[in-house]
Amino acid sequence: MMYVVGVDLGGTKTAAGVVGADGEVLFSEQIPTLNRGGGDAILRATAALVGRLMRRAAGEGIDVGRVGVGSAGVIDAVNGEVVSATDAILGWAGTRLTGGLAQLLGLPRGSVRAVNDVHAHALGEAWRGAAAGSSSSLMVAFGTGVGGSFVLDGSPVLGHHFVGGHVGHFASPYAYHEGKALPCVCRGSGHVEAIASGPAIHESFLRFGGSPEVPDTRAVFALAQLSLARAASIENAAANHAAAIKAIGAGAGAAGQAIGGLVNILDPETVVVSGGLADAGGFWWKPMERALRKELMGPLADIPVLRAALGNTAAIVGAAKLVLT
Question: What pTM value is reported for the model?
Fold first, then answer.
């Protein structure tokens, strides 16, 4: 059986694993991403991680000679370069990702391939996860940001400029407050990500009168799940409870409407929803799916809408798939 290394290179951590041609992750390891060290430092640390896995595999009699990478940023999948990146990874834009890794690892350049990490995530779910067996699948992830990918016949649709999948950055009627468009991290405004991401839900909670002492989105969900009787009995909890419910409802509604609109455009066989919010339970999932199905055209009414199945290994598996075919 053929084995390769799949790498999930994100803004805070980089994970990698040895993956077989059957999609099984034999073993894996992760390190913090040196997101303030610049492109060269990140490449060296990633090469060291991959090298350790390759040596471990060799010790078990497994030959690994190819590496697939799912990386944060806009990735030119033809030339293997980082076209652009946010400030989450300083100095990442312009990095020769595949060529640099191949050189550091002593591999032929063609043996290293890369795409954006969300595309890798979607490819993993399409191959071995929730959408396995589907001819086409749309995956949308809601977490720190909002991203997505459309996988068609086993390949993610990257777009002419490799920007395909930035589904957090189109207009949402939910992304307004008191008639003003909410600012988005892309420097635009009124976008899906500005209302439907995890941090956006916390910001909505504060706009709706929630206490600044509630530190993050996880705490907002905990407040929302208080019973009304209990919330009413705790000082200031009733107001925070109401703000939490309203903020989660707005974020979930915006997420569902956005996915529904994309389904109308793309007509995938299967929809996969991923990310931290998708894992937050029915309090987010149910209003999200209601809004999604309300948006759908008639012939699409019964489309499967599934939670992602592979968890933290999805992008590793998807990145591996790049070099397994």
Answer: 0.93
